[in-house]
Design a protein that fits this description.
3-stranded antiparallel beta sheet; 3 strands; alpha+beta; rod-shaped; single chain; 18% strand; 52% helix
């Protein structure tokens, strides 16, 4: 009859522990990878929204400096935002061009224009967790 020592018995209880630990590590790495992917995608989308807001406010300020009325200023800003891929008619995009600005340090000053681009971005991995991201780009300019 063979006697099993304490070391051999303890070793047998630990057999097979590598696979569960490896699976947990792989799942954690995949989740971290998804978070990095979503963060990069959201950063790029926010930069695009900011660029569209900047273009919209520059177009609006250009019309404002020419002495155009509020309707022409808003139309120019909306057109420049549309040229940058942010059409106000899309369901997930809201472009607001206003003169005088509705917020910020130049609130109510008719020499300034303001453009705000809001876009709802559907992320890939965060969407699986039930999160929807709303990005905002602001632009203010003096005519």
């Amino acid at each position: 009859m063979r006697v099993i020592g304490r070391r051999q018995l303890a070793s047998r209880r630990r057999d097979g522990q590598v696979l569960p630990v490896f699976m947990v590590a792989i799942i954690a790495l995949l989740l971290l990878n998804g978070l990095v992917f979503d963060t990069g995608m959201l950063y790029v989308a926010r930069r695009h929204a900011q660029a569209a807001a900047d273009a919209a406010v520059i177009g609006a300020a250009r019309e404002l400096s020419r002495g155009m009325g509020t309707a022409a200023v808003q139309a120019a800003g909306l057109e420049d935002a549309k040229r940058n891929g942010f059409d106000d008619e899309a369901s997930h995009i809201v472009v607001t061009v206003s003169t005088p600005p509705q917020s910020g340090p130049n609130l109510g000053n008719s020499q300034f224009a303001e453009a705000v681009v809001q876009v709802n971005v559907r992320s890939f991995f965060l969407h699986l967790a039930g999160h929807e991201v709303n990005l905002v780009g602001h632009g203010r300019w003096r005519a």
